[in-house]
From TrEMBL:
Protein known as: Magnesium transporter MgtE
Family membership: Belongs to the SLC41A transporter family.
Parts of the chain that traverse the membrane: 365-385, 392-418, 430-450
Subunit structure: Homodimer.
NCBIfam families assigned to the protein according to its UniProt record, in alphabetical order: mgtE
Amino acid sequence: MADITAPPSETQLKSLLRALDDLDLPALTALLRPLSAIQVVDVLERLDVHERAVLYRILPKDRALEVFEILPPSLQGDLVGALQDDAVAALFADMDPDDRVELLDELPATVAGRLMHGLPPDERELTAVVLGYPQRSIGRRMSPEFVSVRPTMTTAEALTRVSAGLDDAETVYMLPVVDDERVLIGVVSLRRLLTAVPGTTIVEVMRPPHWARATEDAETAARRCADLRVLALPIVDNETRLVGILTVDDALQILETAESEDQARIAGTEPLRRPYLTAPVVSLVRSRVVWLLVLAIGATLTVQVLEVFEATLSEVVTLALFVPLLIGTGGNTGNQAATTVTRALALGDVGPRDLGRVLLRELRVGLSLGLLLGGLAFAVTSLVYDRSIGTVIGLTLVSLCTMAATVGGAMPLIARAIRVDPAVFSNPFISTFVDATGLLIYFTIARAVLGI
């Protein structure tokens, strides 16, 4: 049985590209027919805007909508610009409100306004509800289409309501329970409804709810949904009135996007927000050049430190040989600590309130690493050069690893406390900081030990 999640084979891709070049539409239709929606998306991500539009137009209507909903919002925006207005309007109207809002964020205001104006009144109202929340809040990503039940209903009455709302609801596997004021008071699973004794009321089978406020950060709410292992998380307003739900698939998508952003910023780039092969070269340059300029300016601190200790280097030239080793080790130690703590922050394992505990923990880790690496460096360097140089390198590694691990562990927590993305404070800035301070430590120890 074919794996519908596996990328198309090289032979399939070459055949598709050849048919596209020749504009052989019957051949394209035949080649696309055996591919799953996920595989079609994989093909579309490898094409330019024009080719993508040609390929997309020949998909059957049902398959086209399925593919469109899987596409990243950036590519959805590209397709909207390439397709005819009537085709776009039909696609836009068939989308779920939360997916529709994500697409609107990618479009120019004039295009977004035109699409909103073309929606049926009920769909426009649902979309406007989601659009009314802050940009990165979970209210912006929730679905306002759900089925709720009342505590006084019997399980049979609840199942009747579920059946009536199947076509519109985002999910019916988890049902919020609300009172007459729409205040969330519980949740009940579809499984409990189906297995309950006839005549049982909802209040007898419901359980206490977990929920998130609509104004909460989207990543925080998505993490809660994933940690609780629930199929859907109710979203409420400030009065705990139900306004929407976050399904587990949307939560995982939010977490995947956040993870991609963190990884990009840790590496010193800005996230592309679109598949790599579809990103223009200009976008790739723009995502990297700012960080390179910032880091280049930061690196001038290292140059200035070397200038200050130029006389020391001229007296003991051997010291210069170890500069790359020491600053590299310090930077790597700091980056390891920062990456570990940033990940712990994302998972909710630590928070700014744990700064003291993290500092103490990383200080001990850094000191242990420094003693191990410093002891090894002392032994090897003493054999190759002399004991005094070995002492300088050994003591520097002990001090440098301790300092780098402590600073690397603290910076993400400080960033979270001042409401800055912790990933931004991770590898790039820590490397620059550790380079300069590491050299200060190195040459200060060298002067003291060698008496120069």
